[in-house]
Amino acid sequence: MSKVTFEQLLDAGVHFGHLKRKWNPAMAPYIFMEKNGIHIIDLQKTAIKLDEACQALKQIAKSGRKILFVATKKQAKDIVADKIKRVNMPFVTERWPGGMLTNFPTIRKAVKKMASIDKMATDGTFDNLSKREKLQVNRQRAKLEKNLGSISDLTRLPAALFVVDVTKEHIAVKEARRLSIPVFAMVDTNSNPNIIDFPIPANDDASKSISLIIEMIAASIEEGLQERKFEKDSEPARDKKSRKGDVEDIDEEEIDEIEETEEEVDEIETGAEARSDEASLDVPDEIEGAILDGDIEPVVDAAKKVKLAKKAAPAKKIAIKKVKKDDEA
Q1: 56 and 169 belong to one structural domain
Q2: pLDDT given for residue 70 in this prediction
Q3: How far, in Å, CA of 182 to CA of 150, rounded?
Q4: Which of 84, 192, 241, 283 is deepest in the core (most CB within 10 A)?
Q5: Quick check: is 304 in a domain?
Q6: Residue 53, exposed/middle/buried by CB under 10 A (0-12, 13-18, 19+)?
Q7: What's the distance, CA 167 to chain centroid?
Q8: What is the domain range of residue 200?
């Protein structure tokens, strides 16, 4: 973003303030000197404050939020309308409708009324009205368009408010302060900068001064919108790359798990073989031959003997204990 130069500010007459008798003492830090009864604004501070405001507005535009411009004075109407239309931001250049921010739902109803009239003209309902009714509706539509046409795209409260003349637009500033909406403004020597979040000390009466400041503001907003668009365009490619990386990570993890599982299986098989070797019995030759010949009786007899031997072992122990007790007695 190109910064404004001292020469540009000087050529545009940004440094000219109001008469000394009309000054606001709160503007003292921004006044360079007084000459011929007129205060001269310090352009060095103007350049610094303008840069701060441009950076802040750029970030707001980059986040996708709206900035409402207010300029109802004659010198600023056309300038603001022409330059702000390019960046697709809402603006008010006619009368400020009281309660536009603090009573925003009602203003939205008026905007919806304008949209419903447009719908009537397209769906054929307008043709069924009488000539007088058509004239009344057209007049209502023209009035709404004049006052609210530039904010038809404003579906929610703006993220910031930019004001050209703080003294003239004091109602808009009060509403924004009540709703904690940050206010950016051109403040002349007769204005109070303490009620503005981002004051830009400048001549708010000369059209050249207004045009230069608004041009710089519009350029910063446009740059923020371009950065937002660039980030949106680059997001799909970045998401695709990140998904590819996730797949590669999953594949490597699966490979590690498979290798660990194979090692565990090998250990289990080895342990099973060792246990089977330990648990193997010496089968007599005659029983082995009977099994091979298919003769089941020797196998059954051998099983019975094993079972009887298991039962006999506890009985033998009991008998030995009984004999020991008899001997002691």
Answers
A1: yes
A2: 93
A3: 21
A4: 84
A5: yes
A6: buried
A7: 35
A8: 6-233
pLDDT in tens, 27-83: 999 999 888 889 999 999 999 999 999 999 999 999 999 999 999 999 899 999 999
d(CA 115, CA 109): 10
Per the structure block, which two tokens stand in for 247? 């797949």
User: What's the gap between Cα 49 and its chain centre?
Assistant: 27
Tell me the residue type at 320. I
The first and second tokens of residue 131, run together, are 């000539």
pLDDT at residue number 279: 43
- Structure tokens that stand for 61 in this block: 């535009």
The Cβ of residue 144 has, within 10 Å, a number of other Cβ atoms equal to 17
Is 190 in the same domain as 310?
Answer: no
**Rounded Cα gap, residues 136 and 203, in angstroms:** 42
Q: Among all chains, which residue has been given the structure tokens 């594949």? A: 251
13 & 121 share domain: yes
**What six digits make up the tokens of 81?**
């309308």
Backbone angles phi, psi at 124, to 5 degrees: 95, -5
User: Is residue 127's pLDDT more than 90?
Assistant: no
Q: Provide the percentage of residues in the chain whose pLDDT is more than 70.
A: 71
